[in-house]
Amino acid sequence: MEQIQILKDREKQIFEKKDGGAAFDLSCETTSLSGSVSQRACVFCGSRVVLYPVADALHLVHGPIGCAAYTWDIRGSVSSGPELHRLSFSTDLQETDVIFGGEKKLYASLIELIEQYQPKAAFIYSTCIIGIIGDDIDAVCRKVAKETGIPVLPVHSEGFKGTKKDGYRAACISLMKLVGTGETDDISPYSLNILGEFNLAGEAWIIREYYERMGLQVVSTMTGDGRVDAVRKAHGAALNVVQCSGSMTSLAQDMEKKYGIPFMRVSYFGIEDMASALYDVAKHFPDRPDIMEKAREIVKSEVETLYPQLQKFKAALSGKKAAIYVGGAFKTFSLIKALRSLGMSVVLAGSQTGNSEDYRNLKEMSDEGTVIVDDSNPVELSKFILEKEADLLIGGVKERPIAFKLGVAFCDHNHERKIPLAGFIGMYNFALEVYQSVMSPVWQFAPRKGGQK
User: Fold this and answer.
1) What is the arithmetic mean of pLDDT over 65-69?
2) 191-299, what's its fold?
3) Of 100, 116, 125, 122, whose CA–CA distance to 56 is shortest?
4) CA 20 to 30 Å from 116, out of 55, 171, 290, 413?
């Protein structure tokens, strides 16, 4: 709507695809504009997204108690065994600790927690205040590791240092210190690591089962339902398969450089990309044609069951419009394909952490008139949802209120969800949620702003 204005310094992070329009030059990978109320999270958030699903490790947030609230309770990562990651520990720094330093408190906390819980490893998260007062958490970690005999790994995730992507990198640096420290004698040459899969609502179990049915050994899932010992021997796998490219590509690159393990990017959302994730992995092992044959059997069986069900949803959803704003741009690609298979078009597509290559690819696959945004804010999202007359917004917990206030259906595709959306069964769950949200009769009582219904 014309009365909703875009901040001038945000204009370069917004692009509308038009025939004969301006050359594509979307600004991205920058710090959020002050005052824009960005939906993007901090460095600490990025690090805990990656590391917290390691279920048998101790996770200690070094800082004020407020930061520790941003941990287990807003994620849907589940474990098949240990649940130490569900306990949210903090050093709970007070004013005197800020003045005189928190190293002694950190040391005492670590010794007490390790003695009580006997973790396989410990991750220590440095928050904003630690970066300001200058606690040497590396020295404390080295001392405790020597005394306890377990890896104690600092995570330099001071929130003010950058963006959520910098937190991803900090987490990968810590993981890399574990990789290569375990034995690999029991690892098959037909094996892989699943990277960037955080087992939201059990999705890692779905994907692991597909690969195991193909005859492949899954060495480690990093980090959903993760185990420290599995991470330690991950360097013995033949292939790294990266799902959340924004969070884990740097780890895959580090492992390729140090251990010679190739990697590929995949997505497990939607029929097309899920099938490709199986076929592409099978192609990596050409001397085992049976792996490809089993991949084809899985896809054939799953699609034969799923496709007729999707047609029922498509009949009702054809012609509806969707807006997408999620964390990673690679997920956006899959969502566009999945929505098209349901007869829906995408009129707004954006992410918090996309890079230039991601957005160029997004432009190529988008329809004319689609708005592409980087690091958006509630005002911008509201403006384009109204202007483009979207029927659905796909996002996370921070976007839900925007949709409901505008009288628009919403689909939760964030970390706290309890229903799997990955894999073939995930595509059915996704289609069902979209159908139930968009076609709900409640919207007749919530006409959109401006008189639209």
Assistant:
1) 86
2) Rossmann fold (3.40.50)
3) 122
4) 171
Residue 37 phi, psi (nearest 5) = 55, 55
Q: Hey, is 103 helix, strand or coil?
A: helix
Q: Where are the domains of the chain?
A: 8-30+312-451, 43-177, 191-299
Rg of the chain (C-alpha set):
23
Task: Residue 126: name the closest of 144, 103, 104 by CA.
Answer: 103
Give the span between the Cα atoms of 361 and 49, in whole angstroms. Answer: 25
Tokens representing residue 146 in the block: 């020597």
Report which of 217, 223, 214 is spatially closest to residue 242, judged by C-alpha positions: 223
**Alpha helices by DSSP H, 101-136:** 103-117, 128-133
Within 10 angstroms of residue 278's Cβ, the number of other Cβ atoms is: 24
Find how far residue 74's CA is from the centre of its chain.
13
pLDDT for 92-127, tens place per residue?
999 999 999 999 999 999 999 999 999 999 999 999
Q: How far apart are CA 9 and CA 205, in angstroms?
A: 44
Q: Are the beta carbons of 328 and 244 closer than 8 angstroms?
A: yes
CATH class of 43-177: alpha beta
Model pLDDT for residues 246-283, shown as the tens digit of each residue:
889 999 999 999 999 999 999 999 999 999 999 999 99
The count of residues in the chain is 453
Closest alpha carbon to 90 in 145, 48, 46: 48
In 52-74, which positions are buried (b, 16+ CB within 10 angstroms) versus exposed (e)?
Answer: bbbbbbbbbbbbbeebbebbbee
- Contacts of 101 by beta carbon, 8 Å cutoff, 6+ apart: 133, 134, 135
pLDDT reported for residue 451: 43
Contact 117, 59 (CB under 8 A): no
The strand pairing partners of 90, in sequence order, are 61
CA distance 120 to 118: 7
Q: Do domains 43-177 and 191-299 have the same CATH topology?
A: yes
- Which residue, 428, 418, 383, is CA-closest to 397? 418
Q: Which of 153, 158, 63, 56 is nearest to 106 (CA)?
A: 63
Query: If DSSP states are collapsed to H, E and C, what string results for 4-51?
Result: CCCCHHHHHHEEECCCCCCCCCCCCCCCCCCCCCCCCCCHHHHHHHHH
Q: Cα torsion at 179, 184, 189, 190 (round to 10°)?
A: -60
Q: State the DSSP code for 161.
A: G
**Topology annotation, domain 8-30+312-451:** Rossmann fold (3.40.50)
Tell me the C-alpha distance between 92 and 403, whole Å: 36
Residue 232 half-sphere exposure toward CB, CA atoms < 13 A: 13
